[in-house]
Specification:
By secondary structure, the chain is α/β, with parallel strands linked by helices. It contains 14 helices and seven strands. The strands form two sheets. It has a four-stranded mixed beta sheet, with helices on both faces. It has a three-stranded parallel beta sheet with strand order 1-2-3. A hairpin with a 2-residue loop joins β4 and β5. The protein is elongated and about 105 Å long. About 4% of the residues have low confidence.
């Protein structure tokens, strides 16, 4: 810890305090350890009652780790009554296990006394390598952090965004960060966002690239042979991380519109070897987002997927991506009506 160790350049603290009495101590090492503890807490008066191995004792000096002045000033007594004639302390301990090592017992008493005598103030403090961060620096860090978290859609559901932001701010406020702390944290955020292969949109593709990937999958197929789930699930994870703008808008609506609460709607989940845009397994309902300017091959693959799902009891609803971006409320009203019919 900072400030730990023996520093002979500093003044030795000696203040009036309790007298430590060791009655018939058997080992010189225990006496030396006691002196060391006394020095830790600025106690100087040690009394010894009939030490078994005599006094002075070389082993005591070796165990004292520099607290020799306490050992040299120790007073010898022949009887306990003489040694405790002016005061005695009893520690509250477990009656079933009341044996304390001598130095441990002294440490408890010395600590409690020194804490009282010093008002609980520490004799040293953590080194301060940087000034406390100013409000302007902290606010700038928060603004950047919240902006990046918004980009990856961290704040969900949106109606709880304000509470989540306050919780995040409180974490850093309790830290009492320094200027260097904020600079380090800012660098971490920058590395996490700008270090990715593309804009910070929750994945590695932007909206246009995500559209291109979906067009490619629609035209050339979305999975391997039946039962080959690995590639399908891998693609599903990739697509979940990289929604198109239309999918993002629709998913935000599903998350925050109470009409869709509890319907079990999931995004980019495999059904068999097909990856659905949105699916509700409880309702056996699939919502397919149809991109604008779909190729003939992609439209054919979509129709085959729709037929496959229908054969297995799924009801498929097509939603134009352009309609989502132009008139989302109308799209939601239509979907809510359809879902309500399936939920009856």
């Amino acid at each position: 810890m900072p400030g730990a160790g023996t520093d002979k350049t500093k003044n030795w603290i000696e203040t009036p305090g309790p007298i430590i009495i060791l009655v018939e101590p058997q080992l010189g090492e225990n006496i030396g350890a006691t002196a060391r503890v006394m020095a830790n807490f600025a106690l100087a008066r040690l009394r010894l009652v009939k030490p078994r191995d005599g006094w002075p004792n070389i082993h005591a000096h070796r165990a004292a780790s520099g607290a020799d002045r306490i050992l040299e000033a120790a007073a010898l007594f022949d009887t306990l009554e003489a040694a405790i004639a002016d005061r005695i302390v009893t520690l509250p301990v477990n009656p079933a296990f009341a044996s304390l090592n001598l130095a441990q017992a002294v440490a408890v008493v010395a600590y409690e006394w020194f804490k009282l005598a010093s008002g609980g103030a520490l004799p040293f403090a953590m080194p301060q390598k940087s000034e406390p961060a100013g409000k302007q620096q902290v606010q700038a860090f928060f603004a950047n952090l919240e902006r990046q978290l918004d980009q990856i859609e961290y704040f969900r559901p949106l109606d709880k965004r304000a509470t989540m932001v306050v919780n995040l701010r409180n974490i850093f406020a309790r830290m009492q960060p320094t200027q260097q702390d904020i600079q380090t944290l800012h660098g971490v955020v920058v590395a996490l966002t700008e270090g990715r292969k593309g804009p910070a949109r929750g994945g590695v593709l932007d909206g246009e690239e995500a559209k291109a990937l979906r067009a490619l999958l629609a035209e050339y197929g979305q999975g391997g042979a039946p039962g080959d789930r690995g590639p399908v699930r891998g693609l599903a994870r990739l697509l979940r991380r990289n929604p198109t703008d239309a999918e993002r808008l629709l998913w935000d609506a599903f998350t925050n519109d109470r009409r869709f609460a509890g319907k079990g709607i999931k995004r980019q989940v495999p059904v068999g070897t097909h990856i659905t845009d949105f699916v509700s397994f409880p309702l056996r309902l699939v919502i397919d987002v149809v991109p604008a300017h779909e190729s003939t091959a992609a439209a054919k693959a979509r129709a085959e997927r729709r037929a496959w799902l229908s054969e297995r009891g799924y009801h498929v609803l097509d939603v134009d991506a352009s309609a989502i971006e132009v008139d989302l409320p109308q799209v939601l009203d239509r979907l809510a009506e359809k879902i309500a019919m399936r939920d009856r």
